[in-house]
Amino acid sequence: MSRILIIGSEGQLGSELSSFFSKIMDPSNIFLSDIKDESSSILTYNKLDALSYNELKTFVKSYRISHIYHLAAILSAKGETNPMKTWNLNMNSLLNVLELGKNKLIDKIFWPSSISVFGINSEKVNTRQNSVKDPTTVYGISKLAGERWCEYYNMVYNVDVRSVRFPGIISSNTLPGGGTTDYAVEIFHSFIKNEDFKCFLSENTMLPMIYIDDAIESIWKLMNSDKQNLTIKSSYNISAFSISPKIIFDELKKINSDFKIIYSPDKRQSIADSWPDTVEDSQARKDWNWKEKFSLKQTIKEMLRKLN
Q1: Element at 242 (helix H, strand E)
Q2: Among residues 45, 69, 139, 236, which one is catalytic?
C-alpha cells in the first residue's frame, strides 16, 4: 500500500490533489505538508521545511512514505519580486526530494513543471515537446533546470520521477497564488460578485489552460502508468484548451449581459507574451493515454456551480 506525502498541500494544486486522494485511498496513508501552521484539510498535516533535507528524511523514514508529490513553488509573477528566494525554494527543495529517491528512501516522485519553460523563440502555436526553451522568468528558469535535474536523476540514478508541464490551471478551491494565468480564476470571482473585472492581460492574449479535474487526472494517470512506456524522462507537454481574456469574457457575458471587463495590462503581460498560444501534447497522449475531459464551456459551468 502506497503512503504518500504532498509537499505544498495548501496551494491550488495540492489542496485539490489531497481531496482527490482522500476519496480513493485510506486517509491514514495520506500526509500533507506546507509552510503554514495549520491545514484546511482534516488529513494528517505537518509543517515541514522542504529546504531541509534532514527534516524531510526524518519524516519520510518515520512515516514510511513511498511516494512524494512535490508541489511547493513560488509562481511566475510573484517570483519576479524576489528571484533568489524563488530560485532557492523551487530548485533546492526539488533536489532534496530527488536525493530521497536517489538514496532509496522513496519509490516514486511527482513534480510539476510548467509552460513557463518556453520563451520568445519557441513556436507560439502547437509548441512541440522538444521546442526551444528560453524562459524569461526565474520561475521558468527554475522549472527548466528542474526538468533537466529530473531527467538526470532518472537516467543516472534510476529515480522514478514523473512530471507534466502544466498550462494555466483553472480551479475554485483556492484563491490565485501569484501566477500569470491567474486572471482565468479571478474573472469568475468578479462575475459571481457582480463586479467589473479588471484584467491584467490584454484582451487577445492566448494561453493554454486546463480545468483542475483534468490536471488531477493527468497526475493520477501518469503516476499509475507503466514506467517502461514513458519515453519522456523530463516533463510531458499537456493541454486541454486555449483561451484569451476576451474569449472567456464573451462566454460569461452570454450568461450575464451586464458583466463588464476593463483591460489594464501590467508587468505580467510580457511574461504571457513569451509563452505558447497552444501546446502540442501528442507524446503524453501516446505514452500514457492523456486525454482531457473538460472543454472551456464545461469548465465555466463547473466553476460557476462550485463558486455558487
Answers
A1: strand 241-243
A2: 139
